[in-house]
Design brief:
This protein is mostly helical and 132 residues long. It has two helices and three strands, in the order H-H-E-E-E.
Length: 132
């Protein structure tokens, strides 16, 4: 919701800034007319400068709103498993070549444990939970 308010505020500042710059430009142009007054030049330049300040404020709010929108957040999930007291640890071996596997040879892919044997290169899904 904070970013929405920044963009709405920027829209208002842009609108006011454009109106002030436009009125300032008309005042400067009007001061050159035969019916115009030389005071209009001063007012026109003043309104133009204030309009540029408003436009800069609007650009600043847009920048502030865009600054935090990059979604390069990496989420790391840690799973803790509570094992029963009678758990036995045994060596997990490759079902293709019989080579001894280590925990780093098993990766979770789309929620399923996948084994890649470092010896024969075979990749397969584990059907039962390994007991290290």
């Amino acid at each position: 919701m904070g970013k929405t308010l920044l963009y709405v505020g920027a829209g208002f500042l842009f609108l006011i800034g454009l109106c002030l710059v436009g009125y300032g430009a008309l005042s400067v142009i009007g001061s050159t007319s035969t019916n115009g007054s030389s005071n209009w030049l001063t007012y026109g330049l003043g309104f133009g400068c204030v309009g540029v300040i408003f436009l800069g404020g609007g650009a600043g709010l847009v920048y502030a709103g865009m600054r935090g929108t990059k979604e390069d957040v990496v989420q790391q999930v840690t799973m803790k498993v509570d094992l029963p007291g009678d758990t036995k640890i045994s060596q997990v071996t490759c079902r293709n070549c019989g080579g001894a596997l280590k925990p780093e040879n098993i990766k979770m892919v789309a929620g399923a444990p996948m084994v890649q044997c470092p010896y024969c290169g075979t990749t397969y899904q584990l059907t039962e939970e390994p007991k290290w």
